[in-house]
Design brief:
The chain is of the alpha+beta class. Helix content is 22%, strand content 28%. The strands form three sheets. The chain has a five-stranded antiparallel β-sheet with strand order 5-6-7-4-8. A three-stranded mixed β-sheet has the order 3-10-9, with helices on one face. InterPro entries: FAD-dep_OxRdtase, FAD/NAD-bd_sf.
């Protein structure tokens, strides 16, 4: 039974604990004594030198699997899919960078000579059905919200409200029930692989 969290500043008692640790969800579950059906993958993004405004929204293409937007400062923010291997390395890989740039140049050939200023990688968790886990766990009073893949940033406000309501009541909110860990045991997987508009 989970009765709180041990931190480097001491113990914090709690009736319920919500674990929302993005790319480290599988590791956190292992520390709690159970296994999540999660894989962690590096996800990369790039930022260009500032240029004059040309893009006023996020543009995404499933045909070439890439997305691009432009910041108020003029930088292009560019990304694509996750690295194909499981891991926690955050520096990314040259093949993924190359594919990302190829995808953007295919959509916008005029950007072929724009210089990239920086690149970084983060870690995302993915599930077998590409849908999140918002669920109670085998550990009483411990709840997880994870497995969002590349869609977590966009879904955070809504899932946060649903998760907070679940923690407050100790029972899963009706909107969260389909996203239970149990679906991986009883076969009730969610058939929405294309809902995120990307293939994880």
């Amino acid at each position: 039974m989970c009765i709180g969290v041990e931190t480097n500043k001491g113990f914090i008692g709690a009736k319920r604990v919500g674990v929302v640790t993005a790319g480290n969800s599988g590791h956190m579950a292992k520390l709690a004594g159970f296994r999540l059906p999660i894989e962690s993958h590096p996800l990369q993004a790039l930022v260009s030198e500032p240029i004059k405004p040309i893009i006023d929204s996020v543009i995404m293409s499933n045909a070439v699997h890439g997305y691009i937007s432009q910041s108020d400062k003029g930088d292009l923010v560019i990304g694509a899919g996750i690295d194909s291997w499981v891991g926690y390395g955050q520096r990314g890989s040259y093949p993924v960078i190359e594919h990302t740039i190829q995808a953007i140049v295919e959509m916008f050939p005029v950007l072929s000579r724009v210089c990239m200023n920086r690149q970084w990688g983060g870690i995302v968790d993915t599930t077998p059905d590409a849908c999140p886990i918002i669920s109670k766990t085998p550990v009483p009073n411990m709840f997880f919200n994870c497995g969002w893949g590349t869609g977590g940033f966009k879904a955070t406000p809504g899932s946060g409200n649903v998760f907070a309501a679940s923690l407050a009541k100790g029972e899963m909110h009706p909107l969260a029930k389909p996203f239970s860990i149990d679906r991986f045991h009883n076969g009730a997987l969610i058939d929405e692989h294309g809902a995120a508009a990307v293939a994880h």
